[in-house]
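User: Round two. Same drill as before: sequence, then structure, for each protein.

Assistant: Same drill it is. First protein:
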Amino acid sequence: MTAAAKRVRTPAQASLRALRRAQILAAARSIVATLGLEALTVGALEQNLGFSRGVITYHFKDKDEIVAEVLASAVAEIDQGTRESLQRPVSVAVAVRAVLETKVRGFLSHREAGLILISFWSRAQASPTVKQASAGLYARYRKQSDRLIVLARAQHGRCRARPGAFGAVMVGVVIGLVLQSWFDPSLDVEAALDEAARMLTAHLE
C-alpha cells in the first residue's frame, strides 16, 4: 500500500478524528477558562479526558498547536457573537446603544471564550501569535465602531468624534463593562450601557 493510500481515511475514521479533536479542544478550553493558560498541559488533558498521551499527540502535534487552536476558537466565537446587526435606518443614539449592547452581551453570553481571552492577555507581549490575534479582534471592533461616525455625519452633517480614537474608546467601554460584570455580578449592566451610550452619543453630535 502506498503512503498516499495510507493517508486516505474512511468517512468513519474522519468522523472519529474530528470528534477526538473537538473533545481535546473542548477540554483544553475548559482548563484555560477555569485554571488559566499555565495549567494547560498534555498531562492535564490526559487526566481530564482519560486519553493516552499518544491519542492527544496523534490529533495535535504538540501543546503549541493546542494553544493556538484554543485561542483561535475563542476569538472566532467572540467575533461571531459580537457582530451587531442594524437592518433598518436608526438614529445615532439607537445605533450606539445597539452596538455597545451587542458587544457586551456577546462577551457575557460566551463567558468561556471571554475568560480564555483574558488568560491569553498575559502572554500578549511575549507571543506574536497572541498579540496578533488580540490586536485583530479589537481592530475590527474599532472599525465597526467608527461606522457610527459615518452615520452621525449623514444624519447631522457634522461629527466631532475622530475615527480610530472613538473606536478605541468604544472598545475600552465594552471591555471595562464586561470585566466589571464578571468581577461584580451585582453591577447593573443595563444602566451602565445606558450611561455609556449617552456619553458616547454626545461625542457624535
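Second protein:
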Amino acid sequence: MKRIESKFKESFYESLVRGVTGVSPDVLQLMEEALAEEKSSPAKGMLEAMLKNVELAQKLKKGVCQSPGIPCIYVRCGPEMARIDVQKISRESIMRATREGYLRPSIVHPLTRKNTGDNSGARHTQF
C-alpha cells in the first residue's frame, strides 16, 4: 500500500506543477495559429509575448500565469486507492507547490481574510 500511496503522491504533485507551468498542446497550437493569422501589430505583439511566456515557464519551471487561481481537483480512483487519504495528499501537494513558488499564496478565509501563506485555507480541499 505504501508504494501505491507514494506513487500517487508524486504523480499528483507532478500533475499539479505541470498544470501551472504549461498549456496543453491544443491550446499552444491555437495560439500559434492565431499569431500566424493576426493582422493587428499590437495583437501580434501580445500573442508573441504570450507564446514566449509559455516557452519560458516550461523551460524555467515557473507558472504560466502569476495568479493561477484556486486549485479545483477532481480525482477518480480505483478500488486499490480506497485506503489512501487522497484529500491529505492533495492538500500537502498544494501547500508544497505554493511553498516552491508554483502557486501564488492567495487563498484567504472568506470571513476573517486571514491568509495562511500556503493555500491551505479552511475547507479548500474538502471532498
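The two ends are 22 Å apart (CA to CA).

User: Perfect.
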